[in-house]
Design brief:
The structure is a single chain. By secondary structure, the chain is an alpha+beta fold. It has two domains: 3-125, no CATH class; 133-249, no CATH class. Helix content is 50%, strand content 19%. The chain has helices spanning 16-27, 63-67, 110-125, 133-136, 138-163, 174-201, 217-249; strands at residues 3-8, 12-15, 41-47, 53-56, 73-80, 86-93, 102-107, 206-209.
Length: 250
């Protein structure tokens, strides 16, 4: 009886050494045969970009040399016909694709399918995980960004209106405070929607770190993003707390 098991691969940062370990482990299932017919098939394709790719019809002698370049996606297919049919399909792609990022084992040898599946699962268990906090807690993080930035925008807008004599300063009251709080959330929400898409783009489900480190775009952008978020959140939040303290205890 044939059995198929599919292992999704998501939320990982795959380094050169990790990919080498995975490919070596998966390639062990390939065994050459001298038979004229039913020759096992081995196909490894490594894409550096949409125009450049390397293809192997046998396991590379040196996986390190094959992986020491920027990689956008790779795929490995092994087909064995005897003594029992076995098929292995592994594909990985930098980004958020759910269709391409998986490994599938199928064949008539159920023991082989199960053993290969759990062996690969154990390897992935030790791989560095991608930070998913922005995807899992998008509501509280969104509010944390929206409120301080909206408060700063509201103060700037109010200052301009006072400066141009469109409105007049009035004594502080709780209803007025909550009115400005709601306006701040509205202003900040528009801004947060724009910036949150940029945040998620820098935390892809699969991030491949091979080749020179200066080609790891998301890793470099996250450092800049941390500084920007610090300025956007900490400074306006401090101002909001100061305004509330001044109103309560002045």
């Amino acid at each position: 009886m044939a059995l198929t098991r599919r292992l999704p691969i998501s939320n990982y940062i795959l380094s050169e050494s990790t990919l080498e370990t995975l490919l070596r482990s998966l390639s062990r299932h390939y065994e050459k045969s001298d038979e004229k017919y039913h020759t096992p098939d081995y196909t490894l394709v490594i894409h550096e970009d949409e125009h450049t790719a390397s293809s192997y019809d046998d396991p590379p002698e040196d996986f390190t040399a094959a992986l020491c370049r920027p990689i956008t996606n790779l795929s490995l297919t092994i087909q064995i016909y005897k003594p029992k049919r076995r098929r292995l399909e592994f594909s990985i792609s930098h980004g958020d694709s759910t269709y391409r990022n998986n490994v599938t084992f199928s064949g008539d040898d159920e023991n082989w399918v199960n053993l290969a599946y759990f062996e690969t699962q154990n390897i992935l268990a030790s791989v560095e995980r991608q930070n998913t906090i922005f995807r899992r807690y998008w509501i509280p993080i969104g509010l944390l960004i929206a409120l301080p930035t909206g408060w700063a925008l509201d103060k700037i807008f109010s200052f301009i209106l006072v400066l141009t004599s469109q409105i007049k300063l009035v004594p502080w009251t709780w209803p007025l405070f909550f009115q400005h709080l709601v306006i701040s959330l509205i202003f900040g929400s528009f801004f947060t929607i724009l910036i949150y898409a940029a945040i998620l783009k820098n935390f892809p489900s699969i991030e491949i770190h091979t080749g020179p480190s200066h080609t790891w775009k998301e890793a470099r952008r996250r450092k800049v993003l941390g500084i920007i978020l610090g300025v956007l959140i900490v400074a306006p939040l401090g101002n909001l707390i100061y305004d509330l303290y001044k109103a309560l205890f002045a």
